[in-house]
């Protein structure tokens, strides 16, 4: 199988996908999971370099958070295992950055109905960490001011939503306006750039000079936060993403009568196992009520581009939860960008049926299929109410030699077509968004169509999935659509409101 195997500590940029041994069940509770999606965390980057507090013995497979299905390789299933082969599960265990992994079934949870694999892979560490920090440790109360550092990160954005669900008022900090805008989108009341020299002054102004009641800190800003915490405030230490473990002047802790507590969710199974199911039950209830929503980074990293995904974590260019998708379909970073577009569109749960016209079902040729084809190879959309697609012609473009591109030629190259959208109604009275490129309408996004797992679509070689309604993409539109993510997001939102 494909995966990553660590035999010595290396830089994340040196990670290379390779053939590695299949996982082997050793414990009485072990099952094999087909990994569909894996969460990317800051500590994963530290672990491959030997800089994390928990280091497995060599050789080992990196990655902790994941979502997938129980593999048929798990049979016979362990005694008392509540799962069956094919069940959708998520969890945290060593070895997620591979096609398959072994883990204790007790470390697994069932993926909630309506949740995608990518969303589920973002839960195991971030959700309970943020929840227990604010509820179990800080005991956040309605009406209190909560200062959440690095609020655009994986634990940060969930903390924002949890604090709002508790009735608190949230001050979100982040290091750029783009990230602050994301925080606002998910409920933050006030925004502060912690790179600004006067961020502490602004926090005090927001709270009317009283200071905040709770500080949620996954970065390492405890000492600076002592200046903005109020009387009997609570600071919860969640992590040290800044890389420095602080030395705290304890006289300020005494003078303000504050509590300084830590949160290590990973130790709960060992020290407080009865608390774990309680936290998950309350989290799932919040999700089902619509109070919590997984927040995924817009760019999807196929498994072979794990290094690029971890780089996005390290340079803090990502927001929410970044993740890898376990599909071997793109052999270049440019191809993975186009794949990202389609994958993200599916994760919006706004489509039921996906069709990319190809001349083969061989996934190894996927990248070649994204190249522009001859005009007579394009696929026309059927105009019927079910929007069924016509089979692509099995005609391969004639071979041609690559010619050198001159500066003059580059100037003549056409820019990607713009993508526009409008809302239409089909023969059945169903409203949909039609996205149009330069040559023809290529995408139809329905308001109420349920989610489709992109893995299932690829497993079928790009064939139309059951249901009939959905999306049709012509190959020569990839570039235009890839560069129009904002238009597509607007279209989907328009469809939901229509």
Mind explaining what this structure looks like?
- The protein is of the alpha/beta class.
- It is 28% helix and 19% strand.
- The protein contains 17 helices and 20 strands.
- The chain has helices at 42-48, 117-120, 126-137, 154-165, 177-185, 199-206, 222-225, 250-255, 268-271, 275-289, 306-314, 333-347, 366-369, 407-412, 454-459, 478-482, 485-497, and strands at 2-3, 18-19, 30-39, 65-70, 88-92, 100-104, 108-110, 145-148, 169-174, 190-193, 212-217, 229-237, 259-262, 301-302, 323-325, 354-355, 420-425, 431-436, 441-446, 471-472.
- Helix 8 links the parallel strand 12 (229-237) and strand 13 (259-262).
- Helix 3 (126-137) packs across helix 4 and helix 3 (126-137) packs across helix 10.
- The longest helix is centred in the middle third of the chain and has 15 residues, at 275-289.
- It is globular.
- Mean pLDDT is 75; it is low at 327-339, 345-421 and 432-489.
